[in-house]
Amino acid sequence: MAEVMLPRKMEILNHSSKFGSPDPLHVLAVDDSHVDRKFIERLLRVSSCKVTVVDSATRALQYLGLDVEEKSVGFEDLKVNLIMTDYSMPGMTGYELLKKIKESSAFREVPVVIMSSENILPRIDRYNFIIILTVLLLSQTIVNLVNVFVLVS
Fold first, then answer.
1. Which DSSP letter does residue 110 get?
2. Which domain holds residue 122?
3. Chain mean pLDDT for the chain
4. Residue 2 maps to a domain
5. What's the sign of the alpha-carbon dihedral 106, 124, 32, 12?
6. What span, in angstroms and rounded, lies between the C-alpha atoms of 16 and 20?
7. What is the pLDDT of residues 47-64, one digit of tens each?
8. Is the whole-model pTM more than 0.90?
9. Which of 57, 72, 116, 153 is most deeply buried (CB count within 10 A of its CB)?
């Protein structure tokens, strides 16, 4: 596997004063590509975020306690500030994940970033999301995007 080179320090705004909590920003990253998951995880950890990575939309729903197969208990206190998901994944797409998240009362206000190289805007523009074209995805772009969510939250 190729080593991903990241800048030494990229600052994500301190959101503790905004949210009244010293906890770091918690990002749930969903991608079926191991390389992409590792890249996003390292980038966000370098930027002082707490990162949880999962390899599928189904696992993301399980983590959030939104899977229908198992009744979830104890997820009321789960705090996720941002969800980043790949669009094209086997089983369940990022779009389908987005719909399930936005149908949930617990997570409907959590911003969702869908990463895609496809033009999928007409299909998902009603669900309050952001699309990033992976071809243009730069590390500083992700940091800037997370900072936007900190400022508007």
1. S
2. 24-67+78-152
3. 73
4. no
5. negative
6. 5
7. 788 999 999 999 999 999
8. no
9. 57
Burial (0-12, 13-18, 19+ Cβ within 10 Å), 134: middle
State how far the Cα of 121 lies from the Cα of 74, in Å rounded to an integer.
35
H-assigned helices in 20-137: 34-46, 57-64, 94-103, 121-124
In terms of Cα–Cα distance, which of 78, 94, 88, 89 is closest to 129? 94
For 57, the token pair is: 């939309």
Which residue from 66, 81, 72, 34 is spatially nearest to 53, judged by alpha carbons?
34
Task: Give the whole-angstrom CA distance, residue 22 versus residue 19.
Answer: 8
62/66 Cα distance (integer angstroms): 6
DSSP H or E run through 116? strand 112-116
Name the residue with higher pLDDT: 18 or 52: 52
Query: Does residue 16 sit within a domain?
Result: no
